[in-house]
Amino acid sequence: MDGEGEDASKVIHVKFVTKLYPPFKAPVSSVVIPSNVTRLGLSSIVNSLLTLEKPEAFDFLIDGELIRMSLEQFLLAKGISAERTLEIEYIRAVAPRKEEKPSLHDDWVSAVDGSSPRFILTGCYDGLGRIWSSPGSCTHILEGHTGAISSVAFVNSQGGESVTVATASKDRTLRLFKVDTAESGDSTTRVRAYKILRGHKASVQSVVAEKHGSMVCSSSWDCTINLWNTDESESELSVSGKKRKGNNQAEEAQLEGEAVTTFVGHTQCVSSVVWPEEDVIYSCSWDHSVRRWDVPTGKDTLNLYCGKALNTVDVGGEGSALVAGGGSDPVLRVWDPRKPGTSAPVFQFSSHSSWISACKWHESSWFHLLSASYDGKIMLWDLRTAWPLSVIDTHKDKVLCADWWKGDSVVSGGADSNLRISSGISIS
């Protein structure tokens, strides 16, 4: 047991409980353990009770709060009496159990979307988008941009043999692609855009798709946010370069689209946008603000200021209402807009050592989110503790983007030109 050498003069009576199913369900009976046992010691005790063939890492909660110090210190800090039998809940530790083979690109991997359970979408500084069916297996290359890709998004990726993809680039345009996912064979299919979206006057920094619809939203260094239709019938043929011959493809005409609506209010680069509800868009900017926009009117209905240039924003957590953001310092901040009269964060996580490049809530958890940083690390967080649950440090340079994939994996890209997949993460 991990408790060798621990001072056993003080002991505590505890009962281990869990919502996990067999084989992770221990007998519910009181046991006596040393008071100064740590999380690793608790994990060792539960493993001995379970008699598992392969040891499993666990996390522990008392009254809904994760233990991140010795049991004795935790009880003292929380003012909990050790005289009674303590009920300690255990869950599977939130950490990757497998690192997949990296998928090498020709340049920095600047964007990733893991919202499709079947594919991973990446954007690269070589100006190409790529669709991956598994580690190392690139099925489609999306071509046409003349500058680095800064953001990518699946527009519709659920079911069917065709998916629509949007890419945003430093060449000031967005491109829309229709990808036939039923195409078989070992070779990689090159796809060109069916529609080019022009209108931004500077690099396009972020693109996000409407959840249940066919529109996309983009943000730019020109300080604006644009909404666009992805429907083919909503455009006219472009005049310049309307025909081009692709690899073994007949000549096709490309469409051009103009912005349906433009939101104005930010005073510097709008670095990230998210579209959590039909009528609500959130944005963050280098002007130090997070804004909430009412889509029908184009008015901003909320301003949160944090005093730092922001690179990334996401909305999720309890009631899908918490706003997470990060930028030009090592602090991941979480705001709750439902609390009136204050723009102060309700949580601040400070374990990174450089700027934060990405943050993302887990779609099925109130508590869990990830952050990525220029320090080369991805951290997995739980709102119930101030320390990261897990640190993924497989990248050998800055991490530029990260997302959840299939609920139990993290996909990430960085300045080491790799797409990395960390899998086997248990979120309970």
From TrEMBL:
Renumbered ranges of WD repeats: 142-187, 197-238, 263-303, 349-391
Stretches assigned to coiled coil: none
Subcellular location: Nucleus, Nucleolus; Nucleus, Nucleoplasm
Main location, first listed in the record: nucleus
Organism: Brassica oleracea var. oleracea
Keyword Lipid metabolism assigned: no
GO BP annotations listed: maturation of 5.8S rRNA from tricistronic rRNA transcript (SSU-rRNA, 5.8S rRNA, LSU-rRNA); maturation of LSU-rRNA from tricistronic rRNA transcript (SSU-rRNA, 5.8S rRNA, LSU-rRNA)
Protein name per the record: Ribosome biogenesis protein WDR12 homolog
Transmembrane segments: none
MF GO annotations: ribonucleoprotein complex binding
Upper classification of the organism: Eukaryota, Viridiplantae, Streptophyta, Embryophyta, Tracheophyta
The UniProt record lists the keyword rRNA processing: yes
InterPro entries: NLE, WD40/YVTN_repeat-like_dom_sf, WD40_PAC1, WD40_repeat_CS, WD40_repeat_dom_sf, WD40_rpt, WDR12/Ytm1
NLE domain location: 12-75
Alphabetized Gene3D superfamilies for the sequence: YVTN repeat-like/Quinoprotein amine dehydrogenase
Gene Ontology cellular-component annotations: nucleolus; nucleoplasm; preribosome, large subunit precursor
